[in-house]
Write a structure and sequence with these properties.
disordered N terminus; Helicase, Ruva Protein, domain 3; about 240 residues; 8 helices; Rossmann fold; alpha/beta; 5 strands
């Protein structure tokens, strides 16, 4: 049975490969290969991006969807851990016809026989058609409890990429500046340094602050100067 998706899940405005920064060269290289694979419309390579919260898994999956969509190919993004979506395993039936399927937080359905069967079918059928499946999760595949040989065979065709959180201040500020440009404004380096000092190294928290500042800048028609940022943060 093919289950029609009940709603369109939008991509965040600023997500793209340009706004993602990897500190380790080995990770940057693997992500470069990932992007090259997406650029090849005949590629049947599939990937699993894993790492702790805040490492950019959702960002990269949505960036992948945007990347292929801009090249006039269809894609689907499904956040499997989103409790607000009425997702059942049958939602995957027929998705192998889509050139790129991105499944976020696959951990949420592991251990469920119906979901694992549907994932197995999706991965294997997509490969036959020359299409790609990209999944994300917290733990590496070798730590999963794999009950069936079919599921194991499907996972053996997946290339894993371990993601790491940003730790260097200059890289975090650079990530903020790249996101700001995609949102339509420039973020001076002194403002970026101030935000990291005032809040934390948690990029997701900082991006939430950046969105708040973007809205305030738009409403008040002010540039993103340090005095303006200090004023806005003092009244929120």
């Amino acid at each position: 049975m093919f289950v029609q998706l009940p709603l369109k899940i939008g991509l965040r405005q600023e997500v793209c490969f340009d706004t993602y920064i990897a500190e380790e060269e080995s990770v940057a290289f693997k992500l470069s290969q990932f992007q090259k694979s997406l650029a090849d419309q005949y590629s049947d390579e599939s990937f699993y991006l894993f790492g702790e919260a805040g490492t950019g898994k959702t960002h990269l999956l949505q960036a992948a969807c945007r990347f292929v969509t801009e090249r006039n190919r269809a894609s689907v993004y499904l956040p499997l851990a989103d409790a607000s979506l009425p997702l059942i395993a049958d939602v995957l039936n027929g998705l192998e016809q889509t050139p790129l399927v991105c499944l976020d937080d696959v951990d949420a359905v592991l251990g469920d026989r119906d979901w694992e069967g549907a994932l197995t079918n999706l991965i294997m059928r997509a490969k036959v058609l020359g299409h790609q499946v990209v999944m994300s999760g917290r733990d590496e595949i070798t730590s999963w409890s794999i009950a069936s040989s079919e599921w194991l065979q499907a996972l053996m065709s997946i290339m894993p990429i371990a993601l790491k959180p940003l730790t260097r201040k200059q890289d975090i500020v650079m990530a903020l500046q790249r996101h700001a440009l995609k949102l339509g404004f420039e973020l001076p380096i002194e403002v970026g340094n101030y935000l990291v000092k005032q809040f934390s190294n948690d990029l997701q928290e900082l991006l939430s602050v950046l969105k708040l500042l973007e809205q305030a800048s738009f409403v008040e028609k002010r540039r993103m100067t340090l005095p303006f940022v200090k004023h806005i943060l003092s009244i929120t």
